[in-house]
Amino acid sequence: MPTGAIVAGGRSTRFGDADKSVAELAGVPMIRRVADRLAGADDPVPPGAARAGGGDPVVDDLVVNCRPDQREAIAEALDGYPLPVRWALDDEPDRGPLAGIRNACRAAPGEYAFVVACDVPFVDPSFAEALLADAADADADAAIPRLEDRWFQTTQAVYRADATAAACDRALARGDGKILAAVDELSVVRVEDATIRERTSEHTFTNVNTREEFEAAAARLAEHVS
Ligand SMILES: Nc1nc2c(ncn2[C@@H]2O[C@H](COP(=O)(O)OP(=O)(O)OP(=O)(O)O)[C@@H](O)[C@H]2O)c(=O)[nH]1
Predict the structure, then answer these.
(1) Which atom of ligand 1 is nearest to 14's Cα?
(2) How far apart are the CA of 31 and the centre of ligand 1, in A?
(3) What is the pLDDT of residues 82-101, one digit of tens each?
(4) Of the candidates 95, 135, 131, which has an alpha carbon nearest to the alpha carbon of residue 116?
(5) Example GO biological process term (predicted)?
(6) Where are the chain's structural domains?
(7) 3-state class of 15 per DSSP?
(8) For residue 50, what pLDDT is reported?
(9) Atom of ligand 1 nearest to the CA of 13
(10) If you measure from the C-alpha of residue 53 to the centroid of ligand 1, how many angstroms do you get, rounded to a whole number?
(11) Which among 44, 168, 71 has a CA at the least distance from the CA of 115?
(12) What are the pLDDT digits (tens) for 198-218?
């Protein structure tokens, strides 16, 4: 299995005066929801509480990428997490998601890392498994989904950790902060729209940027509970 690599070093500016990674969505910090899904829990429970039943983990361990000042709150959110957690702290903040992916991949002990943003509370663990199989079967450096009407979903993708960290390093050294600048150097399985739709629903990519999107995600969770 890959390492789960959650990227959380953003400033959540569209979210307002709070770090969205630890914002409690129906009582559970958003990053914990993402982490719990990777650990196989269908129904994440508040930090510290016993884990709900569910499927098997789809990752061996977890790397959390964030700024040093976020660590304490995120560690609290992950209290009692059932898999080993490693920290990939940004030595320089605000270098963008590419630096986050680089730092997360550097810290990943597994050959592959499933990189995922902290703000996708409905991420589908079986989709992560399928992406790993895509990359491993093709002996590729990455498997990256691409919906028809959107660009590559680079923050919900599987990467070969060492090759990706090195490609990100080179892109950052060139002053090119675009994730695709690093991806261009990798051998990539492109997972296209039809395949994505066979495997999962678009909710796996639903991310929370604003308070309105946060409320919509809470409403969706409430519907599922009732
Ligand atoms: N390490 C690191 N991660 C980042 C950085 N910027 C964004 N990210 C992460 O990349 C992912 C996608 O970014 P956004 O959805 O734009 O999140 P954000 O930057 O916190 O939010 P906005 O400020 O509203 O754009 C999130 O998981 C962020 O935590 C950064 O400078 N460093």
Answers:
(1) 24
(2) 13
(3) 999 999 999 999 999 999 99
(4) 131
(5) Mo-molybdopterin cofactor biosynthetic process
(6) 3-225
(7) helix
(8) 47
(9) 23
(10) 31
(11) 168
(12) 999 989 999 999 999 999 999
Atom number in ligand 1 closest to CA 10: 20
Cα 226 to ligand 1 centre (Å): 32
ipTM topping 0.85: yes
Task: Give the ligand 1 atom nearest the CA of 7.
Answer: 27
Separation of alpha carbons 218 and 159, rounded Å: 30
Atom 10 of ligand 1 has which residue's CA nearest to it? 97
Q: Which two tokens stand for residue 22?
A: 């630890």
Looking at per-residue confidence, does 110 or 138 come out higher? 138
Where are any strands of DSSP class E within the chain? 3-7, 24-25, 28-29, 61-66, 85-89, 112-117, 142-146, 156-160, 188-192
Site of tokens 């994440």: 44
Reply yes or no on domain 3-225 having CATH 3.90.550.10. yes
Alpha-carbon gap, residue 8 to 10, rounded angstroms: 6
C-alpha to C-alpha distance for 11 and 184, rounded to whole angstroms: 26
Average pLDDT, the chain: 93
Structure tokens at 171: 């892109």
Instruction: Quote the ligand 1 centre to 97 CA distance (angstroms).
Output: 6
Atom 14 of ligand 1: nearest residue by CA position: 10
> Contact, 126 vs 199, CB < 8 A?
yes
Sign of the alpha-carbon dihedral angle for 21, 22, 28, 32: positive
Q: Is the full-model pTM beyond 0.90?
A: yes
